[in-house]
User: Fold this.
Amino acid sequence: MAKQKTIITCAITGAIHTPTMSDALPYTPDDIAGQAIAAAEAGASILHLHARRPTDGGVSIDPETFAAFLPRVKQATDAVINISTGGSLKNTIEERIAPALRFSPEMCSMNMGSMNFSFHPLAGRYQDWKFDWEKDYVENSDTYIFRNTFADIKNAATQLAPHGIKFEHECYDVGHLYNLKFCMDIGLFKAPIFIQFIFGILGGIGAEVDNLIFMKRTADRLFGDDYRWSVLGAGGAQMSLATTASQMGGNVRVGLEDSLFISRGKLAESNAQQVQKIRRIVEDLGCEVATPDEAREILGLKGGDKVGF
Ligand code: KMH
Ligand code: ZN
Assistant:
């Protein structure tokens, strides 16, 4: 069988990092669109997108904030647009799926279990904050539960089903694979599913190669040929775990949502810089990077002409 090409996803801004942490983190519609387009030009075939308040970079789940950049990204690139349903840790599942329901993208995220999801240790690194909301937001992340009950997942999957959206199943620990298997068995998700193995979030499984092998072996046992997979290593693990994943036949996710760095201790200048780096590594090590249309084929997507924006 021919070796499958490597899909690069770029997660442009997310809901963990705040403007104080890096000047490169985009939060205005212009910046989100500009960095997303540059990431696609650098080789990302999927753009994983969150929205931010343009005034102060706060996390926003308001569909209007997505409306300010989605059409621009679509017009300027052929990349697959993936809308996050993660929201911030306080949003209800109804609020979190509202942008995907309104814009009917080719892909959206689907978080596969409830968990602690904390980044409070980051607060200690900064004395002066650019905006008032940031310090409390980061410090208080140790009080939150990222809620994704079976009922929430069923509710989201059922409401989104008529849109033909392929999910990026966010799995932060091995139990989430079993949750996903259960949901597949009751008919919520169709093969081939796309799993994002996530390592290094405080509250989830650690960023170690042993854990990647364990997650992959478990997914092989549960899903056989019915799944495609990608790896996201948070923070300092981003490039090394993505490299290992690509050598194991998997796909990769980079972007400032997951790490602000380009190398140890050095902030990335942009999302595109991270895409260029992982692309260079993947190609140097003998793999080919998938175009957006090849990613559509590999994942069985509905097509860029069937979105609602
Ligand atoms: N921030 C990542 C660790 C989502 O957007 O639904 C996971 C994520 C979740 O991307
Ligand atoms: Zn995300």
